[in-house]
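ok posting inputs for the threonylcarbamoyladenylate job
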Amino acid sequence: MTMLIKVDPLKPAEDVLRKAADLIKEGGVVAFPTETVYGLGADCFNISAVLKIFEIKKRPPDNPLIVHIYDKKQLEDLIDQDYQKASAIIDVFWPGPVTLIFRKKSDVPREVTGGLETVAVRMPSHPVAQKLLLLSATPIAAPSANLSGKPSPTRAEHVIEDLYGLVDAIIDGGETPFGIESTIIDFSRERPVLLRPGPATIEEILKLVPNLEIPDFLLKKINEPVRPLSPGMTYRHYAPEKPLILVTNENKLDEILLKYPEAPVICPQEMTTRFYGRRTIVLGTLKEPFTIAQNLFHVLRTVDSITTNAVIAIGFEPKGILFSVMNRLRRAATEIVE
Ligand code: TXA
Ligand code: MG
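and the output
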């Protein structure tokens, strides 16, 4: 049975969250909101609880989970290296939408890290996530709370759609503010590497970590072989069930529109007049690019309920948060026209 718990995202009532925390302590699995997307959490030191996450999501066992903490002191229980290298990022972005990878302590179960010797750690800023972590009194391992391969959930309804009946509780804290998953930086090697662009933009991160390596697979076509730095990066992801054609080359747009006369177009508000007479799905305005990120996964989920056989998405110039949005669109696309 799944308990549905509704909370005020800004001032979550403690007695209500305590029920969810008790479930975590008893080895249960609980979906909760964070400032990025909803997570599906379990006590990171309880191996059978962690294994339930993989089973519920149908997640490949080699795809590691992120461990969530509420206090820097908890890092000492998880990592086996000096985190000074990351202090500029930690000072600015923790708590917040940035995940850091370090060499792990041997106590951190290999089930959590997909067999890797490193562990991903994040300190979320969402009041519900923070309070749940505090009351649970243990680091919480949590991937995004979707079925593997589906877009990450940005609303409790998305979690209910994928996981109702499979998890012990779903905490409904409304829509998640950033709407795309955290930025991931690997600090376990000599040189820091960006593994996933996210709400903390690439430009901001580069200012704090000038020697950051940005692997070119982040902006490559789908299905190209990539260095398996991060197992989760190699799967097609966020994928709607329908063919999604991502167009980044304006010169080829008319050709694609002719080829798919019925297909709706996912685009920013500013472009809707370009598609006069055709159905458009507005992601947001280019004047507020963060709203485009916030709406992205909801739109990708609605695509499947549309009665056409394909959908066209218009690419963005990959700058700021739109760099991260393009990374997600590329991984969702079945075809990229560039
Ligand atoms: O915003 C977020 O990060 C959300 C919320 C719930 O915190 N979580 C999330 O988790 O997006 P998930 O599991 O959907 O994505 C985690 C990514 C995966 O691509 C995984 O491969 C990578 O992090 N990852 C985790 N541990 C890693 C490690 N030790 N080395 C390399 N990549 C790792
Ligand atoms: Mg995920």
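notes: The radius of gyration is 20 Å. Residues 223-228 have pLDDT under 50 and may be disordered.
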